[in-house]
Amino acid sequence: MENGLRNPSETTGKVITCKAAITWGPGEPFVIEEVRVDPPQKMEVRIKILFTSICHTDLSAWQGENEAQRAYPRILGHEASGIVESVGEGVMDIKKGDHVVPIFNGECGDCLYCKCEKTNMCERAGVNPFMTVMVNDGKSRFSCKEGKPIFHFLNTSTFSEYTVVESACVVKIDPDASLKTMTLLSCGVSTGVGAAWNIANVKAGSTVAIFGLGAVGLAVAEGARARGATKIIGVDINPNKFTKGRAMGITDTINPRDFEKPVHECIREMTGGGVDYSFECAGISEVLREAFLSTHEGWGLTVILGIHTSPKMLPLHPMELFTGRVIIASVFGGFKGKTQLPNFAKECMQGVVNLEEFITHELPFEKINEAFQLLIDGKSVRCMLHL
């Protein structure tokens, strides 16, 4: 094997049999089974996954919290890194042997969205939780030994030794970069840092409140710290997260359970009227309201990052928007994956963002169920699985 790959000449154009973690139903333990992975078709790439980690979107999908994610059997996972094993017809910017990270929100480069500087959405390869098969032919590239199809997840399906993704969802990175740390750019770190840089455009000397100190919230803190924010308030009901938060830029902490009054009132008192920017990273409507009201009247900006699976509408009265506050949502931190992520990766290599701090645990791929339990128990930020 070269660079962790089977001999490409032996596998190119052929079905590969490998191990994958399959979920057969909501909340059921992952089962490591042999699967068949078809060759990549037109504008597709087959990747040998070397590292994959787990985020709350994987957790909510596994638990079946959203109807869009209830498709079984399925291979979850969307945060990973690896080496290209082969490419399909028409793929010009990626070749076998390239070091890459798959991304759930792709960039085809040709559609109206990709050509617009105002968005990082993509008409063909944008994030779509309802998509369970490949775009080209509406079929899966995974199957059981018996031939039963296995569904895809968020354009990536990284809980497998090999996966097939749209070329629009594959980002080539510097071969000198650590694949282990680059894994974090597939989702969490890019989402959080990008929200601070690209969406909010946090300014030096500003004040920030972050609601929810998981990996995305901590990435927001890293991004705000790198931009020179002077007060970064971390809000979470798990005080065990505060130590890690302080190591990553958090200057002040609030546990809502320690106060009888609403959190937004506490933050207004701490900041003389409210923060310049707030980030909602919990996916809870009541938290979103607190985040919105914690910003300063006249110019406060709230960025929604949490995934809201509840059918509840926004917990805001229309007149509350007439105070000058603004609310906006962000997908993948506003990054256009293929054109902007490589430069962000270089900045991370230069130490602008400390990626190592996010990795709190490492386990072999076969212990994926233990990794999920660490996340459920609030003990891990990112558990890195080695394939």
UniProtKB/TrEMBL annotation:
The keyword Nucleotide-binding does not apply. One of its GO terms (cellular component) is cytosol. One of its GO terms (biological process) is formaldehyde catabolic process. CDD domains: alcohol_DH_plants. GO terms for molecular function: alcohol dehydrogenase (NAD+) activity; S-(hydroxymethyl)glutathione dehydrogenase [NAD(P)+] activity; zinc ion binding. It catalyses: a secondary alcohol + NAD(+) = a ketone + NADH + H(+); a primary alcohol + NAD(+) = an aldehyde + NADH + H(+). Its EC number is 1.1.1.1. Its cofactor is Zn(2+). Residues 215-334 form the Alcohol dehydrogenase-like C-terminal domain. Keywords: Metal-binding, NAD, Oxidoreductase, Zinc. The keyword Transcription does not apply. Homodimer. This is alcohol dehydrogenase. It comes from Quercus lobata. The gene is LOC115977935.
